[in-house]
Write a structure and sequence with these properties.
This protein is mainly alpha-helical. The protein contains one helix and no strands. The relative contact order is 0.05.
Amino acid sequence: MPDLQPDIATLMRRIEALEMDAAHRGRMIEDLNATIMAQWKEIDGLKRQLRQLTEQLAELEAPRDGAPEPPPPHY
C-alpha cells in the first residue's frame, strides 16, 4: 500500500499559500470597507444638500402674503 500522507514540504507550501490568500482577502475587505465608508459620507452630504434645495424651492414656490396664487392668464 502506497504512503498517502503528503510530505512536510508540501504541507508547508499549502499553509503558506493559504496564509497569503487570507492576508490578500483581509486587505481586500479593508479596501472595500474604506470605499463603502467614503461613499456613505458622500451620500449623506448629497442627502443634506437635496433637503436644503427642496426647502429652498418650497420657499420660492410658496406665496409671500399667504393668499393663493392667481391662475395664469390663459385659464
